[in-house]
């Protein structure tokens, strides 16, 4: 493999035993993304002098304190992000898990140059009032072609947080309607007037139940369900909504089966307690298939089936937040396909890798009883819906969901070996059988992420101590080898 | 003028006296948008058979109950929206006031085809973490080139509601920081833990003060400040935040000067009362320069100066919501330029005609004391920022702000004449000297809007009885004449 790399490029000192069969992998890799750099190349510290200068300029007008690194997207390609100083990094963070098929993907470039895209960019409609004649077709050949089983309708939105808030609103209106006696019962004069004062009975005293360490967004409704980190929540008004215990599983799973089963049973009991006793009864429960921002916390399919059963039992809506887990990264198109649910979720929210956003639903009654109750000016963006259709085409063309399942297994096995070789450095390895949606805890996580840049890899963290791997769907065993080598270098530094 | 129209096109039966000087106007019109239809053309009822079929198809997967009309954007041009049945309507609603320079504007089409646009569409960054090397330049040549006086920084967002919520968050963090004793005072252990329970002291007990009949968006925070209509608010949890009286001016203004001055003084007194006594003290006051969704309610520059003075006096932030009023429609680039404020607003929010969104600010201290407090994955969209730059180029090239001021005066004078001719049909005419941002009350508003379609004009409403005119910036006296004729036909129907 080394021979395909340009001279002067980053060359890991040691090659692992995982590189058997590389020539075959190289071929498959080449077919996935032609013309990608053959490996990382680090020329300067990061940020280098050019980046530092640009960040300084930018900071005059735009807060740059969260800048991780500056990027030159005209030069980035496939799995590789390039910075203005010419540094080339293997990117397994991928814009906080939101780049699906690689930088400057040719299929997407084609979609972006289509007449349809240009038209949708310059003639953005108010979708609820003035949809285009072909909006149904754009939805059916794109967003709805990958709708989760049982959910055949969509409300489109602009970003994940927006999608979740709109799903919450659908849940509140549905439950209030139910309590009122059905969609045909008219609002009372008192409801009509009190809601204008943000007061009961017109406003709602219902809630959304979420889990400890969950992340569902940072707008005021979603932030009230986000329980990941204080820095997200400090000084912001929040609703008095319930948070249930999330089962914190112990690893390796096979050594803690009974403890973990008990943790999940306890968590479900906590959910049931809150549903039945919390002063503001939940209209819905929202859950991530894998808590991402909160630290890559997993639970078993049995837990999620139990959760689905509880919501059915107590007639509470079940919202699955697939903003980060959706679009193939777990080796299924939707992560909740791993669960074998007895009935579909009521709503599934999506964004990030979809490059658009919204919620899927199946029950027609989740459309509120009158128009304009769920409404806003843009209600999404056809341009981004067209881009998602291009992404879906690319995922199908390259069979990227199955590919990611396989590459994930390969990567997981590699990290398992590293964990055995370097005890304590790759703790609580998780994500087995979950595609490339893999994480582990590092004793010096922040230092780990910083060192990763010096060896040519861009990696993100989650929670307090997790290293979260979020490669793109075009990540291959070739890249897994580079990542594994880099991680070995890091822990030896 | 009739000669420039294609045979068979819609021909108003009567021409008004306003059409003097038409040949000159036709020339200026032609230079604004070449190839635009010469007038409306109505072939079927709306929706016609093709539209009805398409709406039926769409409704299977997407709620269509708020559909006003279906559009074929590939055929729409300039000020004219075209539907699948071939109906051509003069559009003075313009996607709820969000199309600035016409359908299929060639300058925007060029921007949409640029390499920069394609790159930004297919490589969407997480802007807070991985901005592009040229993000500062995109901001400076676009969004910031039209920044309101005194505000030289921006936080970018995806839509108006999102922009307002982010501005609220900035206000809450700023005020909490101030109360805490400055940006260097660390959070207490109790704050860090209580915020995770959505509880004080970590969460905030502060509020945002808005006005009766205001509209600031429909997410949970913004909806708590929106007080336009019950249909927006029913069954949704809301924060206990204060709403102040908005002065309801009487028209014509010159006949009610002292009454109106008293209404404004009373409203300001109400604001001061709420700032000083409301149990949840306001961190900020948010106001629209002209309440749009709530019924096109205006107030005088003196009122807004008074409001600015009150916020300074009580050290409350002053947020001006220019989502609907911004980008030239009032004959100034920003509507608050009409006010001659003693000091700039603390934040100005924007979206709609900008086709992107965000809030401008000037005080560096409005950046929270730590990174990641104001943050989300995308934090806006460079593709849409590039489009806004194209819009700004077009506005400057055609001098569209001044143009809109002039066309607005012409249109206003025409409606004044109609109001004199048809007493009671064009009540409370408002928006004099405010560009084309004109409205009046109609005794049968909903019927008025419906009839408008039959005479080839797409018009929107606001509040209970207002007809709100929201032409694009390329609307010219030529179009004003067509609109005036159409409105005369409507009231004679």
TrEMBL record, chains A, B:
SUPFAM superfamilies: PLP-dependent transferases. GO terms for biological process: gamma-aminobutyric acid catabolic process. Its cofactor is pyridoxal 5'-phosphate. Gene3D superfamilies: Aspartate Aminotransferase, domain 1 (3.90.1150.10), Type I PLP-dependent aspartate aminotransferase-like (Major domain) (3.40.640.10). One of its GO terms (cellular component) is mitochondrion. Belongs to the class-III pyridoxal-phosphate-dependent aminotransferase family. This is 4-aminobutyrate aminotransferase. It comes from Pseudogymnoascus destructans (strain ATCC MYA-4855 / 20631-21).
């Amino acid at each position: 493999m080394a021979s395909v790399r340009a001279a002067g490029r980053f060359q890991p000192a040691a090659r692992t035993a995982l590189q058997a069969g590389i020539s075959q992998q190289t071929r498959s890799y080449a077919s996935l993304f032609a013309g990608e750099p053959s490996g990382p190349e680090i020329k300067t510290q990061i940020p280098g002098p050019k980046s530092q200068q640009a960040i300084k300029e930018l900071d005059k007008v735009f807060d740059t304190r969260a800048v991780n690194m500056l990027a030159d997207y005209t030069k980035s390609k496939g799995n590789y992000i390039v910075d203005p100083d010419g540094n080339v990094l293997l990117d397994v963070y991928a814009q906080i898990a939101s780049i699906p098929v690689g930088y400057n993907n040719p299929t997407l470039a084609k979609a972006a140059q289509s007449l349809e895209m240009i038209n949708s960019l310059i003639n953005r409609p108010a979708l609820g009032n003035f949809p285009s004649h072909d909006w149904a077709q754009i939805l059916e050949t794109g967003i709805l072609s990958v709708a989760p089983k049982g959910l055949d309708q969509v409300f489109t939105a602009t970003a994940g947080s927006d999608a979740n808030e709109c799903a919450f609103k659908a849940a509140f209106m549905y439950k209030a309607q139910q309590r009122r006696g059905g969609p045909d019962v008219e609002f009372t004069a008192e409801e009509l007037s009190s809601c204008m004062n943000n007061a009961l009975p017109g406003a709602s005293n219902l809630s959304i139940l979420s889990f400890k360490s969950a992340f569902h967004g940072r707008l005021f409704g979603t932030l009230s369900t986000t329980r990941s980190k204080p820095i997200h929540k400090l000084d912001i008004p929040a609703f008095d909504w319930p948070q249930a215990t999330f089962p914190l599983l112990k690893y390796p799973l096979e050594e803690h089966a009974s403890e973990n089963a008990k943790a999940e049973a306890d968590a479900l009991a906590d959910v049931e307690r809150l549903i039945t006793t919390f002063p503001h009864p939940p209209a819905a429960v929202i859950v991530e298939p894998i808590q991402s921002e909160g630290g890559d916390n997993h639970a078993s399919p049995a837990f999620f089936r139990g959760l689905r059963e509880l919501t059915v039992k107590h007639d509470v809506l079940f919202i699955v937040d697939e903003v980060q887990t959706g679009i193939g990264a777990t080796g299924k198109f939707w992560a909740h396909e791993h669960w074998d649910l007895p009935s579909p979720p009521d709503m599934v929210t999506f964004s990030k890798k979809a490059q658009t956003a919204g919620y899927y639903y199946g029950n027609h009654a989740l459309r509120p009883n009158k128009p304009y109750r769920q409404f806003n000016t843009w209600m999404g963006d056809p341009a981004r819906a067209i881009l998602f259709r291009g992404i879906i085409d690319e995922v199908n063309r390259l069979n990227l969901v199955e590919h990611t399942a396989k590459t994930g297994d390969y990567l997981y096995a590699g990290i398992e070996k590293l964990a055995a070789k370097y005890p304590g450095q790759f703790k609580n390895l998780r994500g087995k059988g979950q595609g490339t949606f893999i994480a582990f805890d590092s004793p010096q996580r922040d230092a780990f992420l910083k060192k990763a840049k010096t060896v040519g890899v861009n990696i993100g963290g989650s929670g307090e101590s997790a290293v979260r791997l979020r490669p793109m769907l075009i990540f291959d065993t070739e890249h897994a080898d580079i990542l594994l080598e880099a991680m070995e270098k890091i822990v030896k530094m």
